[in-house]
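tool_call: predict_structure(chain=1)
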Amino acid sequence: MDYIGSTSVDPRKVTTFRLQEMKSAGQKIVCLTAYDALIARILDESGIDVILVGDSLGNVVQGLETTIPVTLDEIIYHTKAVVRGAKRPLIIADMPFMSYQVSVDEAFANAGRIMKETGCGGVKLEGATEITLQAIRRMTESGIPVMGHVGLTPQSIHKFGSYRARGKDPQEAESIFKDAVNLEQAGAFAVVLEKIPAELAKKITQTLKIPTIGIGAGPHCDGQILVYTDMVGLTIDFNPRFVRRYARLYETILNACKKYAEDIRNLNFPNESESY
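tool_result:
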């Protein structure tokens, strides 16, 4: 497969072992979200290393204000589509709210269901509570790769009360640092660092042997992730400082739809060559 605009993408299938190799070599890990086969195929062709089927689908696909209502069945549905669309990237599925917090047994069963029904390469959990850490140990011992997530954890939005950056005060920073270390010790193969100070992310990245994936966590992480709709400018009402827009697809699609409607109303579509 040829990757447009990239001459240094390793064509091998990305695995958790490959991510560890990339960290050791100082090679940055490129991650984006996806929720369907079409976008997954585009990300694959572009050379993206990791695709996260995030519970952000609640915001992006379903129009919800938070990720909390997203269900396990919905995650499975969208992950199956992404797996069909992409071959090279490592595909990780978010475990939605209350699919892993109740008990270790339930978390283990739900993670197993995701893996069996979707064919993805691992799951992601937010936070580092004792139940979460025990669940990660059991999952990894049974062959389920787990990605951790600390800092701003969107499933805890009602606890935090806002989407402000986390870890700015020393006590909270130390707690986030300890959570990241505990996730590694529990067996996580990588950890997402969301919306924390760059120096804290640097400290965590230098301490952990596993890769760190930043989102709003500065340039020192081993990799970076964004929600793809933010990155390509499909979302226009979400403008945090950590999002860089590489396209303005909202305007492009809006103008195309307006032109389509205009052509139909003016009897310019379909024309003779577009008819049978």
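agent: The radius of gyration is 20 Å. Proceeding to next step.
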